[in-house]
Amino acid sequence: MTSHDVVALVRRQLQIKKVGHCGTLDPIATGLLLLTLGRGTKIQDLLMSEDKEYAGTLTLGATTDTQDRAGKILEEKQVPPLTDTSVREAFEKFRGDFYQMPPMVSAIKQGGVPLYKLARQGKTVEREPRLVHVYSYQISRIEAPEVDFSVSCSKGFYVRTYAHDIGEALACGAHLKDLRRTRSGRFIVDGAVTVDELHNSRPVDILDRILTLPEVSRMRGA
Fold first, then answer.
1. 26 annotated active-site
2. What region holds the tRNA pseudouridylate synthase B C-terminal domain (predicted)?
3. pLDDT value of position 100
4. Which residues of the chain have pLDDT under 70?
């Protein structure tokens, strides 16, 4: 499902016209998608500006044109012998503040046109590097050619590009295999309504679980 599909499902199931989402999930991604309903859409930009947390798997030895497994392979290289130290050194290069080049397959607009639409036309345009921040990361599994990790990062951060750049640092290339958003601001995926619940629960039961604006303000310490 796309993020737009989820919004359409909520509109249909809850009979609410005004529904927005806080940050598109990539096609291969799963996990938390914040939705705003009715008057809640007024704080959508505020919620989108908060930090995120993801869990993912990168595959070493191949780069793709989308920087994830959905794209076409551009180059393949042999994966060198990996050690815990060498992998951590590569991750450490992308900790704290640094500049990240947004991928061509992204929703950023150039001249009013999303980059992904230009990419579909086979076009590549110049992009401005973005200042991003990685607060912390964890590496949970290293089994070549795959590495499982989690990362806590600022808004506007591309985990696909993070995987790609770590592959460059290891001199063998990489792309993102799997991605799951586990947190956005104070919201965690474990407390979310699932798609199955949206399909199968009574609307009144879903509505009972929706947070009010005052509840969200208290969560955020406002």
1. yes
2. 160-200
3. 96
4. 104-127, 222
